[in-house]
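Batch job 17 of 40 flagged for manual review because the log was empty.
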Amino acid sequence: MILSIIVLAALATLSGLTVITTQGTMSQATNDRFHTIALRAAESGAASTMDFLRANPVWTPWLGTAPTFLANNALPGTPNNQFRNDQQAYYEVTVVNNHADPGGPAVDTDNDVIIHSIGHGPNGTISIIEWEVKMPVAGQPMTLVGWREVL
């Protein structure tokens, strides 16, 4: 009788640990998925901004502002949002001048800017990336000089 109580207690402990471990693993997988959605949203915002900057080769008017293409800041469920509604994703993009530009933060003199993109995913997840892009001469191909994942 005592042996069967000990065995049942051990089984109950093992099953409780299994439930806790499984819940932790599932939670981590869900968080990873949500972060990936936010990261892809941020990358989409940066890529859309590159297209916008190619079409607008004078970049000074866009420094410190959000580019005016329709998908920028388009919340989930609105017509201009590029993502499926179940992803609950969107992005916010701003263009800032590179630190080495002699024109300072307000004037682009070297055709080199930083695209700051914040991607939003489900449950409030965010991912922030920055791409530094350069267009040597208007009409020439744009070059990705560098990138970093801020968050």
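Reviewer: the log was empty due to a logging misconfiguration, but the result itself is present. The chain is about 35% helix and 20% strand. Unflagging and moving on to job 18.
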